[in-house]
Amino acid sequence: MTSTYDVYVGVGAAAGSLTRYHVGRWISQISNSDFPWGTWFINVVGSCVLGLVFKDFWWHQHDTMWWLLLGTGFCGGFTTFSTMSYETMHLMRTNRWMATAYLASSLGLGCVLIWAILWV
């Protein structure tokens, strides 16, 4: 049974990672800024998607495999805490205010949006 779980998480993570790569690349091409809009957008949207998936699972009975595929797999592969951390440290060298705004808005807005999705 565990190997089946691994497949669902792996397929979801692969789909999320590929989506993150293409969305991030597209946003980087249209954005001409030192601010890492691609990662910011991905993490904020990923927080919303995770909130929506969680809320649906909260109210409806679903097979655990769907959570592994969508919540753990796709959202885990789509969002990227490590890239956000790297980009924050890179910005700290050049523009501390931008680094602070990036980190605070990524985490803050993500949390506020999840709260709004779950409670409003």
The unreliable regions are: none
How large is the count of helical segments?
5
Question: SSE string, helix = H, strand = E?
Answer: HHHHH
Q: The biggest beta sheet, please?
A: none
How many runs of DSSP E, i.e. beta strands?
0
From the N-terminal CA to the C-terminal CA, the straight-line distance is 37 Å
Tell me the helix content: over 70%
Sheet-strand content, in percent, reads under 5%
Q: Nearest-angstrom radius of gyration?
A: 16 Å
Total individual domains: 1
Mean pLDDT: 93
Structural class: mainly alpha
* Shape designation: globular
Organism: Alicyclobacillus mengziensis
Transmembrane segments: 35-54, 66-86, 98-118
GO molecular function: fluoride channel activity; metal ion binding
Binding site for Na(+): 76, 79
Question: Overview of this structure, please?
Answer:
With 120 residues, the chain is mainly alpha-helical. It has one domain. The chain is built from 5 helices and no strands. The chain has helices at residues 2-30, 37-59, 64-78, 81-94, 96-119.
List the helices and strands and how they pair.
Layout: H1 2-30, H2 37-59, H3 64-78, H4 81-94, H5 96-119
Helix pairs in contact: 1-2, 1-3, 2-3, 2-5, 4-5
Describe this structure in a few short sentences.
With 120 residues, this protein is mainly alpha-helical. Helices cover 88% and strands 0% of the residues.
List its salient traits.
120 residues, single chain
